[in-house]
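Hey L., structure's done. Input below.
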Amino acid sequence: MCVLAASLTTTMAAQEKFEQGKPGDSNYRYLDEYQALKDYIDYDKYPNFKLGAGTTVDDYLSNTTFKNLINKNFTETVAGNAMKMASCVDGSGNMNFDKVKKYVNAATEAGLNVYGHTLAWHSQQPNGWLNSLIADKPDPNSAQEYKVIASKDFLTDKTVGWKSDESQYGYSTKFDNSNGLIIHTTKQCENWWDVQVTAMDNIMTEKGKTYKMTINIKGSKAGKLHTKMGAHSTAYSAETCPEIPFTAEWQNVEINYTPAETSNFLLLQCGDFIGDIYIKSIKFEGYSGTMVPQTAQERHDTLIYAMDKWIKGMMEACDGKVKAWDLVNEAIAGEGNDGEGNYELQHSTGYKSGTWDVGGDAFYWQDHLGDIDYVREACRLARKYGPEDVKLFINDYNLESDWDDNKKVKSLVNWIKKWEADGVTKIDGIGTQMHISCYEDANLQKSAEDHIVKMFEIIAASGKFCRISEMDMGYVRGTNKWGNKLKTNQLTEAEHKKMADFYEFIFKKFFEIIPAAQQWGICQWCPTDAPENSGWRGGEPVGIWDLSYYRKHVYAGFVRGLGGQATSGIKQVEASKTINAQKGIYTLNGTRVQATSVDELPHGIYIVDGKKLVR
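Output:
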């Protein structure tokens, strides 16, 4: 150990909260002395390396603390959701890239690289629009007839889609076998549209055409239910947003609907009603001819049109500033056999409840384009509309899997060879998400570490860029790998520090195994811990900072992994051969610590014998 001492006349620069450890706790004071994370990147050794952060775009554009945290600590930013297709394309195929443009411009002006996520995926898709494009077409030889276009029975189909915040607006939804859907409201909201429930989606209606909606409804008292059909941006009008009167008795209420968009969802809105609204069923009827399926080639060509429109629009919005993309996200199924010993691609026909479709609104392009054309066409369009030097990655999860000896990453490498076999398609890199856990059990931890090493070795041998694309970490106690996942407030200091050690291990193995020319970088998906109500690893210790933006012990693990160590900013530092601790050891705020020997101290800065000591 080297102990450093210096004069107390040091001038300390004011720090933002994200530049400090947790206040009021001497165990975290050593974190105050670290520089920003990106300052530890050794560009002489690793000239290509980028340190990235998953970024909530709304926070980046509106929260100064969060924006400064990202700008000061990272060299690359990736939007968590804002650049996915469903965030930019509505249920009628209308595209809006305003938020993307603001984000890309703000980040690049701050000196960050923006990494694009994602061009092709089966989740978070404008499902209504895509399904309408490949829906059955009218038979030109058939006559128009009045028929049911869409219907839903809430006695048997006990589901709703997106809802506004229940706790904020004082309402809840539930189902029972007598009344179907029950919307229970407890307060008068400022706006009647504050309470919103998506009752139905993918209603195959045509813009401007009139339909009859029949709803079986009653209330705990008389009232009216507001409705809206179409995109969220649809202007309110009597035709697109009719009101439905109801009484305390069951009745079928019929209204005419003229949607402003093609392919719609139905919102129910009742922020101005206090009580219960019961709905058993809803159906839409209209004139339609006999429908016949599109041919496989028609569906293929139509979806290429949709993919072209989407990728062109996104690339134009980014204006050449986004130089790298997740071309295809989460393509490999993690099961099945493609006939060559690899896992199959994900498909709707193979969907099982355990398949990870975290984004919802699944639309499997590969069902219609085929396993090869799906990726080749996306690649062709990305290179057609993207920057000349654009780099394209295949991004997937569980590539570090120990339960199948890394079969998923092996399968991905072999699929890339198949996609590239035409001599035209070129995949530049592999993104490994690494949503992982640190384990209390030594055997589980050793297996996890060993298969991370194997994954790096496989990617290195592929010759492709390697990017850890969405890294975050939880903690599991016990001997069950899938068992006791701890919440942040349950972790001990030792467990926090064990997580820091695991992060350090991952960084060091990345630099050790991946050749410098293949190192794209490492992206931390969650800058802060997850709130308890988060849809992603809710309440888990997944961040480098806590929810108050203070540094955690894992911050030090990142620094050590990058090859750095704490620097105090103290001038004229000299090594002291003797340290006299008999007069006591104090923190910088004057609190005496219990330790009687320097060797007992955690890393940090202390006052010993009238001098400032850095350990």
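Residues 574-614 form one domain. The chain has three domains: 50-128+295-545, 142-292, 574-614.

-- N.
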